[in-house]
Amino acid sequence: MQGFVAAGVLGALVGTAELMSRYRDRPSALLGVASAWFYVLLNTAASVGVLWIIRAFDWRFGSTSPDQTATLQVLVAGLAALALFRSSLFNVRIGDQEVGVGPNLILALLLGVADRGVDRVRAKDRSQQVTRIMRGVRFERARVALPAFCLALLQNLPEQEQQDLATAVESLAASGMTDTQKSYALGLLLINIVGPDVLDGAVTALGEEIGEPVPSPGRPRPQGHPDTEPLTA
User: Fold this and answer.
1) What is the pLDDT of residue 126?
2) Is the pLDDT of residue 177 over 90?
3) Cβ burial, residue 168 (10 Å; 0-12/13-18/19+)
4) How far is residue 3's CA from residue 53's CA, in Å, rounded to a whole number?
5) What whole-number distance in Å separates Cα of residue 100 and Cα of residue 229?
6) Is the predicted pLDDT of residue 103 greater than 50, yes or no?
7) What is the mean pLDDT of the chain?
8) What DSSP line would sit under 30-83, residue for residue?
9) Considering all CA atoms of the chain, what is the largest pairwise distance in Å, rounded to the nearest integer?
10) Using CA atoms, how far apart are residues 178 and 16, in angstroms rounded to an integer?
11) CB-based contact 8:47 (threshold 8 Å)
């Protein structure tokens, strides 16, 4: 029984880690999404099921020690769900795309459901955050300085993600949106990578260099800011 519990826990951790990697700016948002819990439970059940199959066929993976065999069986079962869900039995061409038919199709559908559930929960909150942080920021002044400053604050961001961000910013600059719309879109791109707190701190630090931002609650507005009350004699 302990082996099944351990395999289930390992499978749950694998599923949780995968979901958290998709929502790095606020992983805690997953706690309130039922589809995310279902995805984790499915990974748990798959790991337990694989362990049952392994023990039913007495697969020892070359080990002769009973303790080593039990450990190997649990590890293989806990991690096998990840490989199982990404396998396909055959491919079907739909239009110009090759679609794999098999367990990976179920995974893609469940991830899509989880994505939509999280997005619906977080959409309003993200909109309020980005408009608060980026209000008053000029895109043309911030398009280079703000991403560079945010990325410099991080220490372990992969090079590929930095290149993807640069490409997205260039595409945003070439779009026909207004400066304000581009600024908000830039904020969303950066929130996805660094989170709202880091972005808020970066905008505050750069201040007038990228346009006067609206202060966060508790941050005093400078005298003469357009949102402050006019001085009276």
Assistant:
1) 83
2) yes
3) middle
4) 13
5) 61
6) yes
7) 78
8) GGG-HHHHHHHHHHHHHHHHHHHHHHHTT--TT--SHHHHHHHHHHHHHHHHHH
9) 90
10) 39
11) yes
CA dist., res. 154 & res. 152, Å (int): 5
CA separation for the pair 93, 110 (Å, rounded): 21
Predicted pLDDT of residue 86: 60
Kindly report the pTM of this predicted structure: 0.58
Q: Is 218 exposed, middle or buried (0-12, 13-18, 19+ CB in 10 A)?
A: exposed
From the number of C-beta atoms within 10 Å of its C-beta (0-12, 13-18, 19+), residue 149 rates as: buried
Type of residue at 67: D
Structure tokens at 56: 């039913």
> Is the separation of the CB atoms in 173 and 143 below 8 Å?
yes
Q: Cα–Cα distance between 9 and 40 in angstroms, integer?
A: 10
pLDDT per residue as tens digits for the range 1-34: 788 899 889 888 888 887 777 776 667 767 777 7
Q: DSSP 3-state assignment of 118?
A: helix
